[in-house]
Design brief:
With about 90 residues, the chain is of the alpha+beta class. It is built from two helices and three strands. It has a domain of about 55 residues. The two termini are about 15 Å apart.
């Protein structure tokens, strides 16, 4: 999956967790042992969500958008896909 957005009015109702759980199940079914996400550094909703789901920060990267004068900092987070993670 490239991007995951939720309608702001639908946040905190479990939709994000349900989507992540479905993607996690599919990744496990294909033999994945680790799951990664990239979140923009200013995403104040996404970072705590992924942290609560067991992801930890592995690195921060700087990328450039289509407007070369506008760097974007992304936080790359990962978690192991042991049986305890949903």
């Amino acid at each position: 999956m490239f991007v995951l957005y939720l309608d702001p009015e639908k946040r905190r109702l479990g939709a994000g967790r349900a989507l992540l759980d479905a993607m996690t199940a599919q990744a496990r079914a294909h033999g994945a042992h680790e799951q990664w996400v990239s979140v923009t550094q200013d995403n104040h909703k996404g970072l705590p969500f992924y942290g609560a789901m067991g992801f930890t920060v592995r690195e921060t990267r700087e990328r450039h958008s289509q407007n070369i004068d506008e760097p974007i900092r992304t936080v790359r987070m990962a978690r192991p896909l042991s049986q305890g993670n949903t």
